[in-house]
Amino acid sequence: MPTQNLAAVILAAGKGTRMKSQQPKVLHQIAGQPLALFPVQWCQSLGCCKTIMVVGHQADRVKETFAPYPVDFVVQEQQLGTGHALMVTESALQSFSGTLLLLCGDVPLLREETLKQLIDAHRASAAAVTVLTTHMENPYGYGRIIRNSGQIEKIVEEKDATSDQKNITEINTGIYAFEAPLVYELLHRIGNDNAQGEYYLTDIISLAQSSGLKAAACVLEDPRECMGINDRVQLAEAGEILRQRINHQHMVNGVTLQNPAATYIDHAVIIEADTVIEANCHVRGASHIGAFCHVETGSVIDDCQIGSSTRIKAGSVVEQSQIGEQCAIGPMAHLRPGTVLHGHNKLGNFVETKKAVLGPRSQASHLTYIGDAELGSDINLGCGTITCNYDGVNKHKTVIEDGVFVGSDCQLIAPVTLGRNCLIGAGSTITKDVPEDSLALSRSEQKVIKGWRKRKK
């Protein structure tokens, strides 16, 4: 539920030059979602009454990505530093009064509990501004925290720091809690007399102190949480850290991961207890895997709903499909988008489906293509069966009713309906509807010429 005295600003205007990419840095993904979606989700969980995203580089593209979320956008036309980025949000937050979080769209590893600690520390100290800090063995590139008698006095950027100040290991993470609208009064007093000619948000600490206001610091124990993403190397490093967290939580929740270091599970995935995931598997998107399932090595599951006690055998790819309970898929099966299995189904090796609905207990054990098809229950499709759904211009539907048996190596030329309980002889090409309880054959008569091979020698 939104909290009226808590709001947030997410900085997402930068180009990310070191990414060497044609897309904005904040849209690069780890664990299946854009970098800037992580702070958006934290704001939702914390109950922010308003979340403002500051956009700049390819603003329209960033807006389009986050349009489905409860986010308002403010465009920073010129990149004049972090102080300027926060300043451009003033009109969007003119009616807000309370605690204002400042988050970064390229810092995806913060934990929600860390932000709660920052908010609590800020409010408990009655500070005008509280900065989240941490200690780093190698603080190069970060603003240093300058303290006086234990209290934070100011923040000095790397390019402006003296030799002694560069030896300080406590750094500014770039994450803040402010009191609004007071913060905007201070922002208007920030100058740009520094090495980069920018409006440093860090100057707000010394400004608050000189104005008789309290500035405070909340120290983050794990510096990995504040890791910013500036290039592809850091993107991969952050992805590995996040994947370790995700996998750890699944195992704590009762999921067996055969080799966590070689298991790739996206952030939004749900897996129920007593499911086993073997090594080298990818579970992507908003997939939901039920209890007592088994996913064998090399499988890829992307945006799927999978019922309990289902087995996905080695090397199978399942995309945007709904799979009922107690199904067996693969090995080496490919379920393409729009596949629906109602339960107790078997799709064996080298079976491919697309926009196919299979009723309970219907199966295709091997080497079969089922596309644009609606199958009832208790159907068997023999090896090599093909629903011929495309005529070169349009797609057509195949309907197979309950209890049908289709022999091996059959072609079903859509649009076509196979009536309930009919039987299709092996090797048939079916071009017309088959009535229920019928036998359909379409073979040429077999001819045997005795001695033919001997005469050809």
Descriptive tags:
alpha/beta; 457 residues; elongated; 9 helices; eleven-stranded parallel sheet; single chain; 14-stranded parallel sheet; 39 strands
General description of the model:
The chain has 457 residues and is of the alpha/beta class. Helices cover 18% and strands 32% of the residues. Strands 13, 14, 16, 17, 19, 20, 22, 23, 25, 26, 28, 30, 33 and 36 form a 14-stranded parallel beta sheet that branches. Strands 12-15-18-21-24-27-29-31-34-37-39 form an 11-stranded parallel beta sheet, with helices on one face. Strands 5-4-1-6-10-7-11 form a 7-stranded mixed beta sheet. The longest helix is centred in the middle third of the chain and has 21 residues, at 232-252. The chain is elongated, with a radius of gyration of 30 Å.
